[in-house]
Write a structure and sequence with these properties.
Blueprint (H helix, E strand, L loop, with lengths): L6 E2 L10 H12 L3 H11 L4 E4 L1 H7 L6 E6 L3 H8 L5 E3 L7 E6 L2 E7 L4 E2 L6 E2 L6 H6 L9 E4 L4 E2 L4 H7 L1 E2 L5 H7 L2 H13 L2 E3 H10 L8 H12 L4 H10 L3 H4 L19 H14 L11 H9 L4 H4 L1 E2 L5 E2 L3 H15 L4 H13 L13 H11 L3 H10 L6 H25 L10 H8 L5 H17 L4 H16 L4
Parallel strand pairs: 1-12, 3-6, 11-12
Antiparallel strand pairs: 2-3, 2-9, 4-5, 5-6, 7-8, 9-10, 13-14
Helix pairs in contact: 1-3, 7-9, 8-10, 8-11, 13-14, 13-19, 14-17, 14-19, 16-17, 18-20, 18-22
Length: about 500
């Protein structure tokens, strides 16, 4: 699919359903017995119910899933009563917002009472007000492509806000004015940016303009919800379009300010690579290399690391004689900055540690030259990468964005050589589980000491020895340990 322009006018006029779309909606209604049975249950109770939102949109795009959303005239207590005895499981955590969830077979279902909420400008949490009509409920949704519905059980298609037209044209537009929609719920601005990447859609001019003018409203959105939207954006097939819109509208200044900061000014005396564009390219190249990872699936850690790997450059940029630009220690500075930002976004400690390890190590390979590293240096590279070694391979390869094909091929061949050396040493020395030749109990036995600080010092000494000289065997390691202990006990002259 070709990439659409970032902004597009919505235009007017209804768009008829194509035969394929008719078939998709029929298939959506036919999915297992779920939709038909729900439709009849609610109809028999004189309640309206309709499939709404993402499932309808995705069906029209030819993508059917197992998560279904319904809107109904029934209140939560009635919803719960109508699915009791039919659903395999029921949960009501969303009852305060009119939502009852349930599961039937492999299908996850949410059924929500028609809503016409009132929002407090200081919060994105609405004062829940139940509505009376499906059309009114659809008007409070984020975008027209999510404001379509299929009534049940008859399967009538409902599209009061031109969602099909916008879906056909690949445009994100709001059912009410964009300013009203985003003022009600600023999270919708992030959702719009995310949908650009997930759906490959463009954004209507008035929507992009409203986001630009109202970007600071995103400050009332919780860090966890911001993080979730960033994750969904990054894990989409083509995150670049959404990230670029995040920056162009000013949203990034409030949720990921390190990203627009990469757009370093350039002048005729100090030319250097555009770090912002470079980072987006590294992200794209890392995505293309994800099949090297064990899962082969979209990987949040490598994508975060690729996006953030150079965020230390703005703080470390220095101009030297002759127009030379340097970024000394931007890897270490960047790791510190990444840790601070990821903590602010409430990422788990595990993800933070993994991403920051990759950011801090992403330059290490460039000291390899054409293969000058000793075996000791290779061991240290493996040891420092730890369980992130495979991801580090991916990030390092992705970080090559030179347009000089000869240079690019040379870098790839050099990294191939490093990986080959790691494989050879790993097979011979079990690098993946790099440890000293003696464990803690053996160290205490050799030195005749009990648990304490000295055992940790001895362990670290033997590990350094293992790095420098490879496997020594227990006997040699014990001799080296005794010699170290004797030197340690002898004061220098």
């Amino acid at each position: 699919m070709s990439t659409p322009p970032p902004f597009a006018a919505a235009g007017d006029g209804p768009v008829p359903l194509t035969k394929a779309q008719h078939s998709a909606l029929r298939e959506l209604v036919r999915i297992s017995p779920v939709t038909g049975e729900i439709g009849r249950r609610f109809e028999d109770a004189d309640e309206q119910i309709a499939l709404v939102g993402g499932p309808v949109r995705d069906a029209l795009l030819g993508r059917l899933g197992n998560d279904l959303d319904f809107s109904t005239s029934a209140r939560p207590d009635v919803i719960e009563r109508l699915v009791t005895g039919w659903a395999d499981a029921i949960w009501d955590m969303g009852r305060a917002y009119g939502t009852i969830g349930c599961r039937k077979g492999n299908t996850q279902i949410e059924i929500t009472t028609f809503r016409s909420d009132v929002y407090d400008p200081s919060s994105r949490k609405p004062a829940v007000d139940f509505g009376d009509t499906l059309e009114g409920d659809l008007s409070r949704r984020d975008f027209t492509v999510n404001s379509m519905a299929v009534r049940l059980p008859d399967g009538a298609f409902v599209d009061p806000y031109g969602g099909l037209r916008d879906l056909t044209r690949g445009v994100l537009r709001t059912p009410v004015t964009a300013a009203q929609s985003f003022d009600d719920d600023p999270l919708r601005m992030l959702r719009g940016v995310r949908f650009m990447s997930q759906l490959g859609f463009s954004m209507a001019d008035d929507v992009a303009s409203a986001i630009t003018q109202m970007a600071d409203r995103v400050a009332i959105v919780s860090a966890e919800r911001v993080r979730d939207e960033i994750d969904k954006l990054l894990l989409s097939a083509s995150p670049r379009a959404g990230l670029d819109m995040l920056v162009r509208t000013g949203l990034a200044e409030h949720v990921l300010p390190e990203l627009p900061a990469l757009m370093l000014e350039r002048d005729e005396h100090h030319r250097h690579k555009d770090v912002y564009e470079h980072s987006l390219t590294v992200l794209e190249q890392a995505i293309a290399l994800e099949d090297r990872l064990a899962s082969g699936a979209p990987d949040l850690v490598i994508r975060l690391a690729a996006l953030l790997h150079d965020i230390g450059k703005p703080r470390t940029r220095r101009f030297g004689p002759g127009g030379v630009v340097t970024f000394h220690h931007h890897d270490v500075v960047g790791a510190t900055m990444a840790r601070k930002r990821l903590k602010a976004l409430r990422y788990s400690n595990e993800i933070i540690d993994q991403v920051c390890t990759l950011v801090e190590l992403h330059l290490r390979f460039h000291g390899y030259g054409s293969g000058e590293w000793s075996d000791s240096a290779v061991r240290r590279y493996v040891r420092d990468a730890g369980d992130q070694l495979t991801r580090l391979h991916v990030l390092t390869r992705a970080d090559c964005t030179t347009r000089n094909s000869r240079k690019a091929q040379r870098l790839q061949r050099t990294y191939d050589h490093l990986e080959d050396r790691i494989a050879v040493l790993g097979e011979a020395e079990e690098l993946a589980a790099l440890r000293p030749d003696l464990d803690g109990n053996q160290i205490m036995q050799v030195l005749g000491v009990g648990p304490g600080r000295e055992v940790g010092e001895a362990y670290r000494y033997l590990l350094e020895l293992r790095m420098d000289r490879g496997p020594l065997g227990e006997a040699v390691a014990a001799d080296e340990l005794r010699a170290w202990w004797a030197r340690r006990a002898t004061p220098p002259r």
